[in-house]
Specification:
229 residues, alpha/beta, Rossmann fold, six-stranded parallel β-sheet, 7 helices, disordered C terminus
Length: 229
């Protein structure tokens, strides 16, 4: 009876943790590009562009096409590409950069984060290294709740944009792993106070100067701009 009660408590905690995270993040998840944002920066989470079987990873290309769509429809101005580059032979951000530029996104609209070793690291670095407090997160629907919850817990104003694609073989394993990862996230945030694997110096994202915005701000402040160079 004691063992049964313990197992029941574990199951209730497991289910409750997942339902809590899903309920907290559901209102800020959008399924279509037209409804996502608008926001200055979109954070795109890295994954391998190849599957273990050697074929192209549909999850990777779904994220890239959705991110490119956000830029082309002006729902975001800039993309932070965060992924794993733990070894010389494996470089997720570089693969993301190549895919997005092939989709017509300009290089100056892309910032690469080579130390996004996990969802947690990506968001901590987005806040502390790239100084972002607002962003649209781009990834699959089953991944978004955990990513959004971490962002919210860090004090960021985040929303999610679903990178839609058809189900693939073996995706059920990813979904089960994600349910487990959501529970572990609560421990990362509130119990053992996890830290990012690597931070490094602050590198704020620089945006092109919008002269129209500068003019509007100056007029509202009562400052007269000098037209001379």
């Amino acid at each position: 009876m004691t063992l049964g009660a313990a197992l029941l408590l574990v199951l209730l905690f497991f289910m409750g943790s997942n339902l809590w995270i899903l309920a907290r993040t559901y209102p800020v998840i959008e399924s279509s590009i037209a409804q996502c944002g608008p926001q200055r920066v979109g954070i795109v989470f890295g994954t391998s562009h190849w599957t273990r079987g050697g074929s192209q990873n549909p999850h990777f290309y779904s994220r890239m096409s959705t991110a490119a769509g956000l830029v082309h429809t002006e729902r975001v101005e800039h993309l932070l590409l965060s992924g794993d580059n733990r070894t010389r032979s494996y470089n997720e951000p570089r693969a993301m950069w190549r895919a997005l530029t092939s989709f017509g996104v300009q290089p100056e609209q892309l910032t690469l984060d080579y130390a996004g070793f996990s969802t947690f690291d990506t968001l901590v670095r987005a806040q502390q290294v790239f100084e972002l407090d607002k962003a649209v997160l781009v990834t699959q629907r089953w991944h978004l709740p955990r990513a959004l919850y971490i962002g919210q817990a860090l004090g960021m104003q985040v929303s999610g944009c679903v990178a839609s694609n058809h189900s693939v073989d073996g995706e059920w394993r990813l979904r089960i792993r994600e349910w487990l990862a959501r529970v572990a996230t609560l421990g990362d945030l509130y119990i053992w106070k996890r830290q990012a694997y690597f931070l490094g110096p602050v590198e704020p994202i620089e945006f092109p100067v919008n002269l129209e915005e500068v003019s509007t701000a100056s007029e509202s402040a009562g400052v007269e701009l000098d037209d001379n160079p």
